[in-house]
Every structure is written in structure tokens, then in C-alpha cells.
Amino acid sequence: MSESMGNLRRNMMCGNLRDVNAGQEVILMGWVQRERNLGSLLFVDLRDTTGISQIVFDSTEDEALFKKAVTLRSEYVIAVRGKVRIRSSINKEIPTGDVEVLAEELKILDEAQTPPIYIKDDDNASETMRLKYRYLDLRKPHMQENLKLRAKTAKITRDFFYDNDFIEVETPFLTKPTPEGARDYLVPSRVSPGEFYALPQSPQLMKQLLMVSGMDKYYQIVKCFRDEDLRANRQPEFTQIDIEMSFVDVDDVISINEQFIYKLFKELKNVEIDLPIRRMTYKEAMERYGVDKPDLRFGFELVDISDLVINCGFKVFSDTVQNKGVVKGINVKGYGDKFTRKDITSLEEYAKTYGAKGLVWIKLTKGGITSPIAKFFGDEELKNILDRFNAEKGDLILIVADKLSVACDSLGNLRNEVARRLNLLSNDDFKLVWIIEFPLFEYDEEEKRYVAKHHPFTHPMDEDIDLLETEPQNVRAKAYDIVINGDEMGGGSIRINNSKLQSRMFKALGFTEEEAQEKFGFLLEAFKYGAPPHGGIAYGFDRLIMLFTNSSNIKDVIAFPKTQSATCLMTDAPTNVSEKQLEEVHVKVDIK
Amino acid sequence: MSESMGNLRRNMMCGNLRDVNAGQEVILMGWVQRERNLGSLLFVDLRDTTGISQIVFDSTEDEALFKKAVTLRSEYVIAVRGKVRIRSSINKEIPTGDVEVLAEELKILDEAQTPPIYIKDDDNASETMRLKYRYLDLRKPHMQENLKLRAKTAKITRDFFYDNDFIEVETPFLTKPTPEGARDYLVPSRVSPGEFYALPQSPQLMKQLLMVSGMDKYYQIVKCFRDEDLRANRQPEFTQIDIEMSFVDVDDVISINEQFIYKLFKELKNVEIDLPIRRMTYKEAMERYGVDKPDLRFGFELVDISDLVINCGFKVFSDTVQNKGVVKGINVKGYGDKFTRKDITSLEEYAKTYGAKGLVWIKLTKGGITSPIAKFFGDEELKNILDRFNAEKGDLILIVADKLSVACDSLGNLRNEVARRLNLLSNDDFKLVWIIEFPLFEYDEEEKRYVAKHHPFTHPMDEDIDLLETEPQNVRAKAYDIVINGDEMGGGSIRINNSKLQSRMFKALGFTEEEAQEKFGFLLEAFKYGAPPHGGIAYGFDRLIMLFTNSSNIKDVIAFPKTQSATCLMTDAPTNVSEKQLEEVHVKVDIK
């Protein structure tokens, strides 16, 4: 039997009761976390979004009330009026542990069946169950805290950019399909038969058009959509903090964003990060860390020994270098004894998933040097190699010989994996770095042409513009990523704002003028009427929340996430729809 | 020839220059609004988002610079360094009119072709041109101001709800198609062949699930989608301020929202509205104003004379009443002489568009009473009618005889139309009213059953619950709309939170249990595990911005709106997509 609240109005939240409230009459409302019947006393832990209060029903005070209370079960929703009193036995574990509420009135607002998952942080329900009963999973305190921190982060973000004269502008969701890039989610049009909208992969073109519109500074926290196969920690719809500014160059964008990042850390983690944030060129990052998002919380930097092994007796090394490959390695300094042969084999398997053909190791122990390749080297050769690695007793050196990209990729990721296995990654240690001077182009082996590494509107560095036609591979971009603890949290660039440079860019990308027009016509048209220098950045909002909540699973920071196959287990979306609905939008299902 | 900013960095906005800046060196950047060449002096009005500054190029000071400046044309983007000085002839029309900047350095950041529409507020370009060149249209000062007010309104909204412990939660955009209501936008799934997502018409179910999740108070400013034929001031995607609260009844929701509305008016219009806002039952609104969103800025209330004419000699009246219809009218008090016979004919045409079969009029002039129906009434009868209307010399009475719904609808709208024609609608006069106690059901003539007037989860008024089975037509809902100057700005309700009442509701709607399960299964499942009493409201954000910017066209408050046929003239969305793209999502075009 459910009741209405009647005249009861909540005047206190469960998590806020303190000893100073003793003697007050309060009205609490929430869910029964658990109940214990001690015969004449019934204790109920009552939970709301702020925490838990202990309620006592005393049969000697009010027997009818007690009888009603013993019908309570877990997750019943109730309203309780009663008097706050100091507990006879204080519970130091919870903030409200000094007091309890002696119930004088009880309303059962809704009954509950036994929930299929436990409402507590250390519930071990499968992800499937957690997603199916998401509304129960979200009752867990840590999930509530995650969503609250997310809301707080949005608030800090909006306050910061609003206070700095950025204008929040909503960009459309029913947009034009994108000619390049990831796969679009399509929306068939009813009014224009046979035509489709696309959900935006990002508001990139719209925010550039806003700059052409003279909006000067724009920001938005906005959903974006990419219909890609979902790797871990990707969602088909994700949230972006999107920013664009006019009349700026790289330093201007970086400078305001450093203030923003500073504020996030200060208000969310009470950490004062050092400003300015360190900057590292893409080239240096690749050379020293093998990846463009280095985790700077630990060492193990990449070392190049190609010059030392070009003529060595170990053919794998010498052949690789002679065929324009490289031999690089990392020194897992001081942790050699943490890795058994079996561990090293497992690291080799890991490196292979990034394309390495093998992993050579050298271990320096009290007993001397152990390595399957030691025998191929003379003492002097070996000494030079070890010196290059600054190797000492207790070290473990891991080496990959391959073409540059594979060596970097496999060692860069191996470096992170080693640190993970060694438990070197503290969640309270934040290492931030701007990666700058990205290459403007990368060579697409499939299409046999240069493609834009970011997008075709990225501005080349001024000093490299003249290389556009002659050495495109050496042109650096006015692009920048903010990397925190090895994760790219955001990235952006200065955009091209003049049509002559844009034409040279398209030519370098191998587009004819007609192709450029077809792909980007409306933007090019807009740029004819006076475009200011402009640039911006976009942050992965979900990733930021993962960072600030120490979550390793993106689903823990999104209220209603989707599975790896982009389904919602709670609502069963996507689903079949009626023939009539499809007819109205002029499509039919066509499963090959 | 375009140049880069080089070392120039903007240190002043065009609209902010004042006499106190005289003597300072400033660097301004923006668009050339216009240029006037007076021979040895060239004046340039430079525009940015804040306003306009006058720049002077003096050939006697720097001839090379002057020569460069004479190449400037409208909408060129430039950077100017120069010294601020008091103008010789002050311009009182603009805030920066006391001063000008004597240019010492000029960089042409981008050239511009002659724009196809004028960049000024009173440009008369067609809507088609304005939408095609939206980035130019947005350069107009009033469009910039509209978007800024929109951003400010969002900021006020978020601050208010955040400060009142509401948690902003993002709900999904790829959702399950809705079983009832408006037409969904569909998104074919690639991973689940033959299945579809729908874009949300509102986050209604998600926000209710958040309450079941214990989130307590939720808000979001969120895009919603309805694929309906677009009437004026509708857009296929629109923005909603969405709110839901737990452990509340009608007064609680209304009370916090009155504080919110108060804050909006105070901060946006510097108007202090009276609290509490007046409340009017649906019944009273319909009786007195004929519509459920009455404009209270003027009188002309509906008057019922059915009882006076049931046996009169004018058959149209007496027959209507005897057949259960009504005879109602309005008195356009004091404005009788503003309406000629021709005007009245035009009002009659207007009333007919709302279903009225005709419009009877009585005019009271110095010369006496004029009316085509006067001859059917005795003196006493006529006097009683005129008394009922409180009619005096100078009045015009307009009467409709029809069934109740048609009489109300046509007179209610006629009442507004009359006020519009009389110019009685001041934009500075704000009349707010809560319409409450809506009927829970309305009868669907097509389906021959009762349907939910709001949605099937709306809570009946406590005192009417027992009428659910016996007199569904008399059950009132715990629903409320906020109406401002005759526009519904928002609406909401308390929801049903217990499954027994929900079952009775479904039965009243004629659903079998299986049908209810099929349509709303996941919500019903969620409600099994303890749902708190909850309710909320949603505001039409675009409409609020129209109100606060005095805009009559919704397109003037949205950055990139769509046409009536849901197309974007700037990007040409929607468009054709490739066969490959369609194959990937398992659909093909099927135009009947």
C-alpha cells in the first residue's frame, strides 16, 4: 500500500544530519538501505542522494507505528517525521553517525521488489546487469558522486568561459553529412525524399562559421556522434567542450586554456598545477616516448642505438638499420628484478600487438648481464650500448628493431604497460604537457597521397608555409594537444583564414578545385567575405570526468551509456519500427 | 593580399573606446563597416562584436599607410594600431562617438568580396538570402545581441538550478522510438541491421528514470526533435530547459520555478514580477478567455449568453443552445469605432479559420444600436444581452454560436487578433499566469477513446482519483503551464509513482496490460523497485528567448535555423548520400 506525502515536506537531507540538530524535528525522505529488527527497536538506514541517516522505530513509544515499520524492506521509498537525538553508540564511519531520528510518523511512498543488484559501491554485478538496471546502478553512492562531479565540471567550464566573454552558441544536430572523416549517423528526411541529415561528428565547421560571423569567442558543451566500432572507453555519442576564438595565434589559445585547466584542477582536485604547462614538440615526444601522448609520470624514455648496431653481428639489428629501420629501446631502470622470463615473454606478446616482430631484452643483475643476444656483441660494443641506456645493475633493457613507426608505437605503448604492471601510475600525480608542432600531413598508404593529420583547415606554421609544395612531409601545423598522464584530453589548431593559402593546402592534399568545392563549398564561400584569423580547441568531456573521478570505464561517468555494440540494455534501443514509419521517411530495410 | 597579425595583439574592443582612452595606443581588430575617403583623410568604421570605432588614416602623417588604407573595402578584416584622440566633431549616436583612432599601422588580415546582403539591422534581404548567407546575417548587431542574450539566459538558468542543488545530467540522443506522440526522427543502426534509434522528442522518460535513480533534482538545457510539419515559429530541433524533482507536489515545483522566472525577468529585463504568480484553473481560463493560454494584457473576456437566448427569435442562437451548443461573445470595449463593416467581415473570416460558422456583431454608437440581428430581439431581450456584456456606447460585441469547443477556440483567438489589430500588445508589459487543474484526459474522436492530455504518467489530482473509472472526463491532473502574454512558455506535472495507480490509469486509457507493457515496459519495470513522488516542468527555451528579445520569428534567436521544409539553406542539408553509406546502415531509399 503506497501513500502520498500528504502534508509532509522534506526539511532535511539524510546526509546532512549532525549533532547540532539534536532535539529538532525533521522530515526525511528516501530509500530504505537496510533495516534491523531488534525486537522492540527497529533500525532503518535511510538513504538519499546526500547520504544515510539512522531512523529508530521504538515499539514502546508507538506500537502501531512500529508495526507499520516492520513491513519495510530494502529500497522502499518512505517519508519519516521524527526527533533527532544523539545515538547511544556513535558510528564514526559515517558523517551522520553521531545522531539518529526517533520516528513519530511514517509514510510508505512506494514499495519495492527485491532489486536484482545490490545498491552499494562494492556490488559485483556484471556490466550487463548494471546497464539493464541502470536506474538501480545509479543509486550507488559512487555513481551519484560521478554524475555530480560531471555536473560540477560543466559548471566550472561554463563559468570560466562565460566570465572570459565567450558566447555559448548551440550548433545544429541535423547537419550535412561530412565528406571526410569518421562514419556519420544518418537521419532520413521525410520532407526531402531520398535525402539524409547526419548527426555532427563535431561542430568544427559551424564554429568556424561563427568566427566568420564575428561572434569572436565561442564555446559549447555539446554531444558529438561517430558511428565507429567501439573500442573500450568509446561511446557512439560523446560530449565535447568546444571552443573557438578570433584574432588569435597559438599562444593566445594555449594561454586562456591553461587558465581553464588550472581552474579545473584547483576546484575539482584542489591541486595547483604549474603554469605555463610544459610544451613538447611532436618530434621530441615521438623520439623520447614513441607516442604523441606521453605519460610523463615515469621515465623509461626511448633510446636510439641504431648507430651503434648498424654493423653489429646480430643480423636482426644490423639489417634493420641498413634497411632504413631503427633499433630503439627502453631501460626499465631499477625494476629488472620485477620481471621474470615469463613476464618478459608476456611483454613481448604485448609489443607484438603493436606490430613489433620481437622484443630483445638485456638484464643487468648481480650475476652480470643476461640476454639472448649478448653473444652477438663484443665487450666494447655491448658497453657502448649499455652506456647509451645509462644501464646499471638492477636494470632491464627492452629493445625493438623495426621501421621507425613500429618501433615507436610498440615501445611507446610497452613503456606505458611496464609502468602499469609496476604500479607506478598514481592517480594523485598529474603530469601535463602540450604537444605542439604536429606534422600538417600524414601519408595515406591506401590512398597514396598526403592527407591532413588534423583537418584540411589547419594552419601551417608560418615558417613552413613555403615547404607546402616542395616538402609537405616537413610542414608543421599550428596544432596542439593537451596530454595529461598519457591521455589526450583535448586538441586543436589555428585555422587557415585566407583563401589563397587554403587553395595551396587543397592542392597539397591532391584535391582539384572542383573536388574542394564539392566537399567544402559552403565554408569556402563563407571565407570569401572576410574571415578573421581564428583557432580553437576541443576537449573530450567524458575523458576529463574519467580523469577527475579516477574512473577507468567511460560508462561510469555517463548516466545512460551504450554497450560496445551501441545498444541500450535498459530501453532495448535500437529497435524495429513499423513499415509506416519507414515509408514516411522514404526508406526500407535492406539487409544483405 | 592577406597578412598575418604578426606581433599585433588586440588590446581593445571596438565598442569599448571612450574619451578616457584618449592618448593611449590601442590595437583593434575587426571588419570594415564602411570607409569614406575625404582626399587626404580616410575614415574607416571598424566593427567587432562589441560595436564600432572610427579609424582615421591621415595621408599627411603617413602616405604609404594611407595608400594601403584606400584599398580597404566593406567587410575586409583588418588589424589597426594607432593612438586614440578626441574627435573634432563628436558623434552622439554611438557610445564610442567621442573618440577616434589615428592609425599608425594596418594589417589586412583578409580581403572580402562585396557581401550579398548588407551588414546592418535594417537590411531588407529576403529570408532565403539571410539563411543562405547566415554567417553574414549573424554579423548584424541585433543578431549578435540575440545570441548573446540567449547565452546569458542559459547562464542564468544554469546558475539558478545549480545553486539550488539541481544536478545537470546529460540524457542520450540515440534513444528508443516513442510509442505515442509526435513523429520521431529515425537513425538506422549499422551494428543491429534493420533496427533504428530515434532522436528524443524530450527526455521525459529519462528524467523520470533519474528520479527513480535517486538523483533527487535534475535539470538540463537540451535539444529535442520532432519531425512534424513546421508551423511558423517551430523548428525540427528545438531547445528545452528540462527539470525534474523528487519528493514534491504541485506547490513545490511551482514555488522553485517562480523564483527562477523571477530571476530571469530581473536579470534580463530588470523587471520585478509579482510573486506568487497568479494561478487560474483550466476551467476558468477556458470560460473567460476561450483558450488555455490566455493573454492577460487586455480584457475582452468571453461572456456566455446561452441562457438569455435559448428561446429567442433568432434561430441560429436558440437552435445552437437547444442542441447543447453555446452562444458566447466578447465586448471589444471602447474600440467600436475602430472597426468598419469591412474590418468586421475580416474578423469574421478570421473566426472562421477556427471553425466558427459565422460572427454576429452588435455595435453601440451615438446613433444607437446597429446589428444585423437586432430585429430578432425584443427590447427587454436585447437589454439583458447588452447588460450581460456590460455594453456601453462605443463598444463592439462579437458573438459566436457553436458547440462549446468551437465557440471557445474561435472567440479566444479572435480576442487575441482584435488586440493585435488595436496595437494593445506592449512588449514591456508582462502578464504571467499559471494554468492549473488541466483535464487528465481528452476524448480522441478518431480513436474513440480517452487519451492522456499530457502523458500517461501524469498524476490525477488526489481528490479526483476515485473518478478515474466512473467519470474520466472530470478527472483533473496535477499539471501546470506557465503562460506569459498568451504564450505557453513551459509546462509540467506531477507524475504517478505507484504501480497500482498507474495500472488504473492505463485501464482508463483503454490499454490492456500487455499493451502497456509493450509500450512502456522499461519504465514500469523501473517503478517496481521504489519510485519517489516526483514531478517537473519543461520550458521552451527558444520561446523564452523570443520573449526576452522581442523577436516574432524563432529564426532570429537560433544561430543556424532550418526552413519550414526543414532544410538548411547554408549547407544544403539534407543531401544525398552514397550507396555505400546506405548499405552500411542496411537501408535503401524507397520513394513511393
Automatic annotation (TrEMBL), chains A, B:
Q: Name one GO cellular component term.
A: cytoplasm
Parts forming coiled coils: none
Main localization, broad class: cytoplasm
Q: Which domain of life is it from?
A: Bacteria
What's its top-level EC category?
A: ligase
Q: Where does ATP bind?
A: 226-228, 235, 488, 540-543
Q: What is its EC number?
A: 6.1.1.12
Concerning InterPro entries, the annotation shows: Aa-tRNA-synt_II (IPR004364), aa-tRNA-synth_II (IPR006195), aa-tRNA-synth_II/BPL/LPL (IPR045864), Asp-tRNA-ligase_1 (IPR004524), Asp-tRNA-ligase_1_N (IPR047089), Asp/Asn-tRNA-synth_IIb (IPR002312), AspRS_core (IPR047090), GAD-like_sf (IPR004115)
| The protein's role, per its UniProt record | Catalyzes the attachment of L-aspartate to tRNA(Asp) in a two-step reaction: L-aspartate is first activated by ATP to form Asp-AMP and then transferred to the acceptor end of tRNA(Asp).
For this entry, the protein name equals Aspartate--tRNA ligase
Its organism's taxonomic lineage begins at: Bacteria, Bacillati, Bacillota, Tissierellia, Tissierellales
Q: Which gene encodes it?
A: aspS
